[in-house]
């Protein structure tokens, strides 16, 4: 029996997941990952996706017709919580597949698109996102990647950037400019691009930590069928809002739970080792301060999920999402900063690929910028909170 | 429960919005009205002070959650009076093994009826040597709770000759000093100091979280009105980003208050961890918010006429009370270490 079939009894479901993870996942997977490469870890994530899929635990939140079971929020939280508790591998490579793709195609895609793309995605096809451009970051609507209609195709020329996991992706959700008339928001269309289309070049960008999770995409006369357009021509901005609003909530929940467990484990091993920082008044007290802020942030996320489930207006939950994004990601940075000071020189030792299973000095700290910059920079979050939340005028 | 809480909270907010206006508070601190007494009369009528007490003891029966909403709203309004000390001390007396004592029962009834207030030791256990100590409360307080030996508390009578009004910056509350050698112990509350400290911490956190919200709301409103360089200063990104940060931290403060509420009871490590940490983190966040709210007001923030300084002074007094936040974190650390060693999960959120 697949584990997902036990979803109707919360405690049975929870312990079934817990037992299964113990059995299915090698306990030393993070040590293996540290010895391997980034590519190895992507393969490992694909394997883990497949294992989860066998138990109905890959896309349980999707509707039944597309390969999920329409799992309710409370049960989704159980899955995320157990994955976090076991410090099981994240499905980073499938972030767009799991969230943005259904978030776009279910409300905005047509039947053919849904049938063509969602079932294979539920089995693990990798998707990436082609939204940002060198000249269009926070000001996404100013994007210039040009699509010109040629019969039943669009011909695309331009450049995309910060496209996570695009080296591994089979498909890309792409925002292009189909019109330069009217407002900048009014001339955008939303396309699906196959990553093996001629004219597309993917160039990895080395990140602050030496890895290359994201890439630049160069598009030269790339031909995409008009049938691959999601929504109407020039209505892509509205579609993109659906895509981007799918990003928060449960992802923040799982990130918060993972962080809780890594902090707890860090503290436990410090106690066991009688670590000297526990005798340092400043460091010890700061740890308590951050652990307490973490607790508040986890409560805030639960409140958002509850409000969302009880049907709070999207305008309200959108502001709460921005507030959580700002607080939680800043908190991750503050935690990284503290661990750097706690670990001293050892915090600077480079390890191999680190799969975020425990707190690791400089690695966590430098990677925390990924949290504070991606998904809408924290500066954009502050604008949204001030303008939409506090009713302040636009600058 | 949630719905009833929200309704009671709303009813408290409505009364305070009506009575405790900015004008009324300024008139009060300048000695032109007796807003504290007026609020206390209304509080007695509406049962606010006994909000946490079970109904059979004359209360509303909302427990720690009731304490939280009362002080969140009193703080948000910057309401003057002896509510914080009185409500905390009342709850302790009502829960104590002494509630049946005739004198104590009369005291409880008087406090619920609004004819008496109580005081609490501002820095708990700061003066065990029998010298003088500071009490949060009014000079007319009927009695005060102070730290006794070990985990005990002592209820002491406040003798007229032995108290002195202390002039403090927070003009919305009152502090007195008393000579403990002249104070008459009424009764000892054995083993109740931890609960008292948890409850005091919770009330201080709630008052500060409410005050942070109150001062921020007023500051945001001011920023939308005040124009410079031909536009509202709220349009300047450097300023609006600060306001956005404060708005988020103010929400976090309230979540910490609820973390304290849910972990107040019992003898487990969580009851020694979360109320104290809520007080420590919330009072510091609220201090930062109110400090910047004075700054965001510009020149008028430095005047007595505007509200931010009232909140700032109140929050900073909250921060100083109970115990230094550094000491609270050290105590919380002992509780956390105990929990982690024993495999107790103190981080679970319901």
UniProtKB/TrEMBL annotation, chain B:
Family of the protein in this entry: Belongs to the acyl-CoA dehydrogenase family.
SUPFAM superfamilies cross-referenced by the UniProt entry: Acyl-CoA dehydrogenase C-terminal domain-like, Acyl-CoA dehydrogenase NM domain-like
GO molecular function, one term: flavin adenine dinucleotide binding
Domain Acyl-CoA dehydrogenase/oxidase N-terminal: 6-92
Domain Acyl-CoA dehydrogenase/oxidase C-terminal stretches: 202-319
Protein's recorded name: Alkylation response protein AidB-like acyl-CoA dehydrogenase
Key words of the record: FAD, Flavoprotein, Oxidoreductase
Coiled-coil stretches noted in the UniProt entry, renumbered to this chain: none
């Amino acid at each position: 029996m697949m584990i997902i079939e036990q979803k109707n009894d919360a405690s049975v479901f929870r312990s079934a997941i817990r037992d299964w993870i113990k059995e299915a996942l090698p306990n030393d997977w993070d040590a293996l990952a540290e010895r391997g490469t980034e590519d190895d870890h992507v393969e490992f994530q694909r394997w883990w996706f497949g294992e989860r899929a066998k138990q109905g635990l890959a896309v349980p939140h999707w509707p039944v017709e597309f390969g999920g079971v329409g799992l309710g929020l409370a049960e989704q939280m159980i899955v995320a919580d157990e994955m976090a508790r076991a410090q099981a591998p994240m499905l980073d490579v499938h972030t767009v597949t799991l969230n943005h793709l259904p978030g776009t195609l279910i409300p905005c895609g047509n039947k053919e698109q849904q049938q063509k793309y969602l079932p294979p995605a539920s089995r693990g096809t990798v998707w990436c996102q082609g939204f940002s451009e060198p000249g269009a970051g926070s000001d996404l609507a100013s994007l210039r990647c040009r699509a010109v209609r040629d019969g039943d195709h669009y011909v695309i020329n331009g450049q995309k950037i910060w496209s996570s996991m695009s080296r591994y992706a089979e498909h890309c959700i792409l925002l292009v400019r189909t019109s330069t008339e009217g407002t900048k928001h009014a001339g955008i269309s939303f396309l699906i691009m196959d990553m093996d289309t001629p004219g597309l070049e993917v160039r990895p960008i080395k990140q602050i930590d030496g890895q290359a999770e994201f890439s630049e995409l160069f598009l030269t006369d790339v031909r995409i069928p008009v049938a691959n357009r999601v929504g109407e021509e020039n209505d892509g901005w509205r579609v993109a809002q659906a895509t981007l609003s799918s990003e928060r909530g449960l992802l923040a929940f799982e990130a918060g739970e993972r962080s809780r467990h890594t902090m707890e484990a860090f503290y436990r091993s410090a106690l066991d080792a009688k670590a000297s920082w526990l005798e340092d008044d400043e460091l010890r007290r700061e740890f308590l301060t951050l652990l307490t802020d973490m607790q508040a942030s986890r409560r805030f996320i639960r409140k958002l999920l509850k409000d969302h489930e009880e049907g709070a207006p999207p305008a309200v939950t959108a502001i709460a999402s921005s507030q959580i994004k700002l607080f939680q990601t800043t908190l991750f940075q503050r935690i990284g900063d503290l661990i750097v000071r706690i670990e001293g020189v050892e915090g600077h030792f480079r390890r191999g690929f680190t799969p975020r299973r425990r707190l690791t000095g400089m690695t966590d700290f430098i990677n925390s910028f990924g949290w504070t910059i991606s998904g809408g920079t924290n500066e954009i979050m502050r604008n949204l909170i001030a303008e939409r939340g506090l009713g302040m005028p636009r600058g | 429960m949630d719905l009833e809480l929200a309704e009671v909270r709303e009813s408290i907010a409505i009364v305070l919005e009506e009575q405790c206006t900015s004008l009324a508070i300024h008139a009060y601190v300048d000695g032109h009205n007796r807003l504290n007494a007026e609020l206390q009369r209304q509080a007695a009528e509406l049962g606010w002070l006994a909000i946490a007490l079970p109904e059979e003891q004359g209360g509303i029966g909302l427990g720690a959650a009731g304490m939280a909403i009362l002080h969140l709203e009193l703080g948000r309004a910057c309401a003057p009076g002896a509510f914080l000390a009185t409500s905390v001390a009342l709850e302790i007396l009502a829960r104590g093994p002494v509630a049946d004592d005739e004198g104590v029962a009369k005291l409880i009834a008087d406090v619920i009826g609004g004819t008496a207030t109580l005081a609490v030791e501002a820095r708990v256990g700061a003066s065990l040597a029998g010298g003088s100590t500071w009490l949060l409360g009014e000079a007319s307080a009927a009695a005060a709770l102070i730290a006794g030996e070990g985990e005990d508390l002592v209820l002491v009578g406040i003798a007229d000759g032995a108290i002195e009004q202390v002039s403090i910056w927070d003009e919305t509350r009152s502090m007195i000093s008393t000579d403990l050698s002249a104070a008459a112990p009424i009764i000892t509350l054995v083993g109740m100091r931890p609960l008292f400290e948890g409850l005091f911490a919770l009330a201080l956190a709630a008052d500060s979280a409410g005050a942070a919200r109150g001062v921020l709301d007023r500051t945001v409103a001011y920023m939308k009105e005040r124009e410079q360089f031909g536009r509202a200063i709220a349009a300047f990104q450097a300023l609006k980003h600060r306001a956005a940060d404060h708005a988020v931290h103010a929400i976090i403060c309230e979540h910490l208050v609820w973390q304290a509420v849910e972990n107040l009871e019992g003898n487990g490590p969580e009851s020694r961890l979360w109320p104290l940490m809520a007080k420590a983190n919330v009072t510091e966040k609220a201090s930062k918010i109110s400090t910047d709210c004075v700054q965001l007001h510009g020149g008028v923030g430095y005047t007595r006429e505007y509200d931010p300084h009232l909140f700032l002074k109140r929050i900073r007094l909250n921060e100083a009370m109970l115990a230094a936040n550094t000491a609270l974190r050290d105590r919380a650390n002992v509780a956390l270490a105990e929990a982690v060693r024993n495999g107790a999960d103190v981080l679970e959120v319901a």
